[in-house]
Amino acid sequence: METEDDLCHNNWGSSSSKSREPGSSDGGNHTFAGFASQQKWEDASILDYEMGVEPTLQVFDEMKASGQANVDFLQGVRAQAWDPRTMLSNLSFMEQKIHQLQDLVHLLVGRGGQVQGRQDELAAQQQQLITTDLTSIIIQLISTAGSLLPSVKHNMSTVPGPYTGQPGSAVFPYAREANNVASQSQNNNNCGAQEFDLPKPVVVDERESHVVEEHEMKDEDDAEEGENLPPGSYEILQLEKEEILAPHTHFCTICGKGFKRDANLRMHMRGHGDEYKTAAALAKPNKESVPGSEPMLIKRYSCPFLGCKRNKEHKKFQPLKTILCVKNHYKRTHCDKSFTCSRCHTKKFSVIADLKTHEKHCGKNKWLCSCGTTFSRKDKLFGHIALFQGHTPAIPLEETKTSASTSAQRGSSEGGNNNQGMVGFNLGSASNANQETAQPGMTDGKISFEEPFSPMNFDTCNFGGFHEFPRLMFDDSESSFQMLIANACGFSPRNVGESVSDTSL
Amino acid sequence: MKKVKQIRVSKPFDLLSEELVFIILDLISPTSSDLKSFSLTCKWFYQLESKHRRSLKPLRSDYLPRILTRYRYTTDLDLTFCPRVTDYALSVVGCLCGPTLLSLDLSRSGSFSAAGLLRLAVKCVNLVEIDLSNATEMRDADAAVVAEARSLERLKLGRCKMLTDMGIGCIAVGCKKLNMVSLKWCVGVGDLGVGLLAVKCKDIRSLDLSYLPITGKCLHDILKLQHLEELLLEGCFGVDDDSLKSLRHDCKSLKKLDASSCQNLTHKGLTSLLSGAACLQRLDLAHCSSVISLDFASSLKKVSALQSIGLDGCSVTPDGLKAIGTLCNSLKEVSLSKCVSVTDEGLSSLVMKLKDLRKLDITCCRKLSGVSITQIANSCPLLVSLKMESCSLVSREAFWLIGQKCRLLEELDLTDNEIDDEGLKSISGCLSLSSLKLGICLNITDKGLSYIGMGCSNLRELDLYRSVGITDVGISTIAQGCIHLETINISYCQDITDKSLVSLSKCSLLQTFESRGCPNITSQGLAAIAVRCKRLAKVDLKKCPSINDSGLLALAHFSQNLKQINVSDTAVTEVGLLSLANIGCLQNIAVVISSGLSPSGVAAALLGCGGLRKAKLHASLRSLLPLSLIHHLEARGCAFLWKDNTLQAELDPKYWKQQLEEIVP
């Protein structure tokens, strides 16, 4: 399990091109990946088209027909598109194809990147087969499947668009969703990688969407407070889940590029000609544009998930205020939490902004109680300890280690000094005294000049027993600090102490 | 010694029960060498003495195994003389003392770590008190180990700067029985740690939070403690009016509150701080930022039973002092030192109301004149301590009245005053006077001092620093009359010769002897003191050019209790220094001599003095001594101070004082 986790994190943490590498999980096939990234350059234009309005609608229609609106889309993928036999056949197919691909890639490189025609499509198809398969396996295996989803994205980006008749779209019809997830994961990844993947304007857009999404979350938080509008006083809209999960809601009628905000679209439109630069075109449409027109009915939204409290069919229906609320609600409540925190590797989120908020604080201040509860704030920890009997603050592991190392250093530096003193300064009595301080074994002869006024001289007891004191034990501060840690973690301190005395005496 | 002899007379010791001997031993002062003589009498006495002794203060931690084996019943172990206490030493303590050990002082020791503390905490299950002050390396993990000592009641963690709330939290949870905690200078501990301490340790009686970055928040919890008697908040800048605004408490048990140097505390905050402390007896507001005015004094309404108030370094108004006198007329101690703005009017109106006043400190209240001193003498007949250094405007006549009216005086500081022989004659009537400081009193002579010598037979401390009118005659009358003298300072009294020292050697209890800048005293005089004053612990011979090695040889031979010596700018050579190695408990040594010392001799002397903690040497030696030696000594717990002052010619005393007055505005 651990290795799988690691795999996942690696993929997350590394560049997007790596995470897109399907071979990395089962043996590694770099040529394949190389081909993939190669291909992406070519597909930039296709990518844009893919976001166009018409194909989207087409896909929507397909999905509505399949009647899966309320099912988690990933499950949908598994259930509908994949039975083991096709998977197997695909795999074996690809096994063969990988070799072909290798040749192909070489060929492509030789051509200088001019790729067109059927071979490209074929490669895309194979890639898709492998990656989607991989995705579904990993989904089953680990809940952090999202980390591998970017591998889907790239392939999907090539599939719809002009070639809707290709088998790729049939295998994985949820182009929108895949794309959505992929773009989210892109957000999560480094921008540098994005720049590599996508043409410039798109990258800018992605960055904007970062900002927007962070705001969105706050918006929804406000909305979640709940308001008491009388039923019927507002218009209920319900978006389909595909619509909700679509990354963009506003699309350019000319080039098909998608935007999250209408304002951004209008800014974009300016690039298409002077007619869009007029004040009227740039102004907000609809809203109060016609003064004196009758006030619009308040819009409220319903969640498409049946049985959800936010669904209009629910008895205690609570509407959502805005589309943003709907989006975040749907992702948080009805989607897989596919974003894993790269610091703690345990917390998962479905909304990327949530992940970012978490990552900002994750691991920073872990205030730990002996009961194992962690707190992000120290005052919360102390409140907890004040409340519960027997709970005690647990000293972080690093600190015990550093203090151990410093004390060890201290000891060693002193030892070093002593040695230096003995070597550098050649007084016989001095070195004797030195040994005396370093090794308080009771060999009387050694206390050369201290002897005359040692008040205990007449005291001739035998201290043989003390030579059995394990002096080394203290030098080996590592082991003793382990016990401290054990202590801090709530083991019975008395027992620990007992064990110490047992071993040492 | 007498008792020992009596025992010897009744020959058969078999008839003497252990209990009886123990009772006898109880009466023998532990500080003298009598106990040692007793234990050397015979084996049985030796054993009895070992059984009887409860407290130990060893000079070296190396001796611990032997000492602790001999004294099996040690309950109090003070390791302040041991600069280096290793984990090994602590485990020796843990194993040999075990559950009998109740108190351990490690405040001056270093070199131990959490491992040693753990052994201690596990083995000494009954440990009640531990002093870990100055363990600047101590971290939270080490504090977590201290928390294992469940029966701990008194804990001192002064200057443990690395500690944070987490460590204190561990201690608060672990040591539930704590009743005295000192966190002075633990600058890493804040409201949360202290608050948790107050929540978890309900028995706390005394809490020292001086110089902590706490605010008023944690005081809400602290003042809920049912048994809290002492709360020290010195220098807590975070304690301000805002955070105390909502504070309402009913801490009837609080007896002492120290809010000195709390810069952000004004009378508003103080009012809420004192709101429930009806039984407060001692209040310290020294170096308070606000003026002690009528308004400020009104915050003391609730604490009318106050017995002691400290307003050192505050600016006070006459109205404020008068109001304090009216509100708290049972005050027994008032400290106004360095309150530059105190006037005769204010002080008079204060002391008029305070018939019960026992202690008054008006050090450096330079505006005061004889009027206030007369008022003090007339209205405070019970005065026990009066400190009035540098009240230069006070006329000589005023001192006559003090001697006549305040007959109970025990402590009198008249440093830098105009007192003359007549004044001393009057003061000699204070028969119980034990401490008298007459530094920089240029008007006094041997005649005046002879009155003191004849009258004040209980004198323990006498300071004659730069009182240049004093000669051997005066000192000899003191030595004759004040046989209990423990401390004497005759620095810069240039007329003093060996005769004084010979006469002072009659004071066999002498512990501290300072004679800086006395050109006429020689090694012979020093030898006389060394031979007869066995308790001599502190000797300052700086700038006595006639002191040479023979004096030190005598000291080294006879003064086995010497802890601190200054022989800077004397004729001492490495021979004398080397002989000092014979003194086992020597801790501080200052030998700033620019020439005539060979580096190897100094090195040998330093190595010889095994218990050395501080050595002040001439800077030129720094490069001459092997670096490795210095490192070695530092590892042994000795700190070095390098000085390169050149000897300055001694100024005329009158001129010296003039210069001093020019500096002081």
UniProtKB/TrEMBL annotation, chain A:
Annotated compartments: Nucleus
The record ties this protein, via Gene3D superfamilies, to: Classic Zinc Finger (3.30.160.60)
Principal localization reads nucleus
Q: Where is this region: Disordered?
A: 1-33, 400-444
Q: Where is the composition biased (Polar residues)?
A: 402-421, 428-440
Q: Which InterPro entries match?
A: STOP1/2, zf-C2H2_STOP1/2_C, Znf-C2H2_STOP1/2_3rd, Znf_C2H2_sf, Znf_C2H2_type
Give any single GO term for biological process.
Answer: response to aluminum ion
* Pfam families linked to this entry: zf-C2H2_STOP2_3rd, zf-C2H2_STOP2_C
- Per its UniProt entry, which superkingdom is the organism in? Eukaryota
Q: Which residues form the C2H2-type domain?
A: 250-277
Alphabetically ordered keywords of this record: Metal-binding, Nucleus, Repeat, Transcription, Transcription regulation, Zinc, Zinc-finger
Query: GO molecular function, one example?
Result: zinc ion binding
Name used for this protein in its record: C2H2-type domain-containing protein
Q: What are the leading ranks of the lineage?
A: Eukaryota, Viridiplantae, Streptophyta, Embryophyta, Tracheophyta
TrEMBL record, chain B:
BP term (GO), one: SCF-dependent proteasomal ubiquitin-dependent protein catabolic process
Against InterPro entries, the record matches this protein to: FBXL15_LRR, Leu-rich_rpt, Leu-rich_rpt_Cys-con_subtyp, LRR_dom_sf
Q: Which Gene3D superfamilies match?
A: Ribonuclease Inhibitor
Where in the numbering of this chain does the F-box/LRR-repeat protein 15-like leucin rich repeat domain appear? 123-270, 328-478
Instruction: Supply the Pfam families for this chain.
Output: DUF7885, LRR_6
User: What GO cellular component entries does it have?
Assistant: SCF ubiquitin ligase complex
Q: Which PANTHER family does the UniProt record give?
A: F-BOX_LRR-REPEAT PROTEIN 3, PARTNER OF PAIRED, ISOFORM B-RELATED
Q: What is this protein called?
A: F-box/LRR-repeat protein 15-like leucin rich repeat domain-containing protein
Q: Which organism is it from?
A: Arabidopsis arenosa (Sand rock-cress)
